[in-house]
Design goal:
single chain; about 550 residues; alpha/beta; Rossmann fold; Jelly Rolls; eleven-stranded mixed beta sheet; ten-stranded mixed beta sheet; 12 helices; 25 strands
């Protein structure tokens, strides 16, 4: 294998460094372009889940299959010149120039495809929108398309992932690479994010969702259900909005670490990605054209389904109404109910915050106190259904409609939909909560409730995040809160559980925590009477529809 480091001068004179791995011989070979701020100097490290940013896929294996693999350090990172822009216009333009430089090389057959996970995928959307002539296809795996809504401001609520954890680890691996010179990155991403709390021109420039319709090259949008706090909706939107030949595949990997291990494996690329690349970059007959338009794993099962479109044809939306009747199935601040029909009981549910029982964010201890560990449900609002009479398969986006009031001028809604497992009477009597599996999430800052009428639909509310509207304390407002797309089977005998609170916790969110603000003090009321039908709207697929 030939392993070269080159410097490519782009249109504004900035040198962009790239590492080229290619087979011995003159070729010509098709090329795969991976672009990120994670430094090709770190490719000596194993592509293991320990290093979540090693998202290149198996480089040496692709070279063995007859591909040149080009790994580019984006400007302001690694060995490239310039200042890091976090997907700004110059970083985007560099992609065009590097792709065209690759296409002109004697060892290249003139065809370039995009490759890589997460940040690599986020840049693939821009590659497609820029439409350099040498770009032949995109295999966009596990990457958001709207960094404001999907990563930095969930529902308008600041998330610490990008300005905190992500920016720290990116500067760290640039400063202490596995080989090569140290690189100091002077960009203050935390300050940049804080300076732009609304969806303004800064974020619009960095939002690939604004330009997804410009993608005309063949697209294989490959997403992961377990990344709903970051990437999942990006792959759904990429598939929905791109205008060229396209297919969608959604993996059942349950979390970021499992997703990293999946993409690092040769088996995944041999089965999933290589037939796509071989077809479009080498002109080889493979099974890719005969694959369904949509393939998706159903979480909670071992089933992989196929469909003509997403959501699957025949999907029906079912409304579940919140009520104040206790279920006796869970210990929470209220233990409310959830049912397809209106129910009697209290007309509203109120909770005060910050709750004195919270220990880590909104999570408290279990019934045994500190010795018993954390209980993520005990100190939040819950609305739980009766045990399901039959299996219920969910497939598509959903939403929650809340009628709510607050004593404050603003508040936050953190929504979780969970599959609550059956619990024995003996265990219930001990006061511990039943096991549960998260299905999906949603977020909304109350002052960001205004909808974009052009992009919102009956089932997918799309918030503009441009002009916050403070609350009048005590006044009841209607809030539509989008739930991230999902595919999940809730089994007969299990219960649906909706959780509502005004924060989250590092105990449950891991990398994607939203730190609790000290000025969030007050009381919120969820109204669920006949005049205020707060409800969960779910996409039901298959026999349960």
């Amino acid at each position: 294998m030939i392993d070269d480091i080159v410097s490519i001068t782009v249109r504004d004179g900035t040198p962009i460094a790239a590492r080229i791995y290619r087979p011995e011989g003159s070729g010509p070979y098709p090329a795969l372009l991976a672009a990120s701020p994670y430094r090709f100097d770190n490719n000596r490290l194993p592509a293991s889940a320990q290093f979540l940013w090693r998202e290149t896929g198996p480089i040496a294996w692709y070279v063995e299959q007859g591909y040149a693999y080009v790994h580019m350090d984006v400007r302001g990172s690694g060995r490239s010149g310039g200042v890091f822009e976090f997907m700004g216009k110059n970083e985007q333009a560099d992609l065009y120039d590097v792709i065209e430089w690759i296409g002109r090389q004697t060892w290249c057959n003139g065809k370039v495809g995009g490759i890589g996970q997460s940040y690599y995928c986020m840049l693939q959307w821009f590659m497609g929108a820029l439409a350099p002539p040498s770009l032949a296809c995109l295999a966009a795996h596990d990457g958001l398309a709207d960094v404001y809504r999907a990563g930095v401001y969930h529902g308008g609520i600041p998330c610490d992932f990008f300005p905190g954890y992500w920016w720290y680890q990116n500067r760290f691996i640039n400063r202490f690479p596995a080989e090569g010179p140290a690189r100091e990155q002077t960009t203050d991403l935390g300050a940049l994010c804080a300076a732009h709390p609304l969806f303004d021109d800064f974020w619009r420039e960095r939002s690939a969702r604004e330009v997804l319709e410009r993608i005309k090259v063949p697209l294989y949008s490959s997403g992961v259900w377990g990344k709903i706090q970051l990437h999942t909706r990006g792959n759904i939107d990429g598939y929905a909005l791109a205008q060229g030949p396209k297919k969608l595949r959604m993996s059942g990997a349950p979390n970021a670490w499992a997703a990293a291990a999946e993409f690092a494996s040769v088996d995944f690329h041999k089965r999933v990605m290589l037939p796509f690349y071989d077809y479009y970059l080498k002109g080889i007959s493979t099974d890719y054209p005969s694959r369904p338009n949509v393939e998706y794993a159903v979480r909670g099962t071992n089933i992989v389904r196929s469909a003509e479109s997403w959501p699957p044809p025949g999907t029906k939306y079912v409304r579940w109404l919140l009520n104040g009747l206790p279920t006796g199935s869970v210990v929470s601040l209220n233990d409310g109910g959830l049912a397809p029909q209106p129910a009697s009981g209290p007309a509203a549910t109120t909770y005060h915050y910050p709750d004195p029982g919270w220990v880590a964010g909104v999570v408290g201890f279990g019934p045994e106190g500190p010795r018993g560990g954390f209980d993520p449900v005990r100190r939040v609002l819950t609305f739980t259904s009766a045990p399901l009479a039959k299996d219920m398969e969910i497939a598509g986006p959903g939403k929650v409609v809340l009628y709510a009031s607050s004593t404050a001028r603003d508040t936050d809604f953190f929504i979780k939909l969970s599959d609550q497992f059956p619990q024995s009477a003996e265990d219930r009597a001990k006061g511990g909560n039943p096991l549960a599996e998260l299905i999906t999430r949603g977020w909304l800052r109350a002052s960001h409730r205004a909808l974009d009428p052009e992009r919102s639909t009956d089932v997918v509310p799309y918030h503009s995040h441009t002009a916050p509207q403070p609350l009048t304390p005590g006044e009841i407002y209607k809030f539509e809160i989008s739930l991230e797309p999902m595919a999940y089977l809730v089994k007969a005998g299990h219960r649906l559980r909706l959780e509502i609170v005004n924060g989250d916790s590092p105990v449950s969110e891991q990398l994607w925590v939203h730190y609790y603000r000290p000025d969030k003090i007050g009381a919120d009321t969820i109204h669920h009477d006949t005049a205020h039908p707060s409800a969960l709207l779910l996409p039901i697929s298959g026999a349960g529809a």
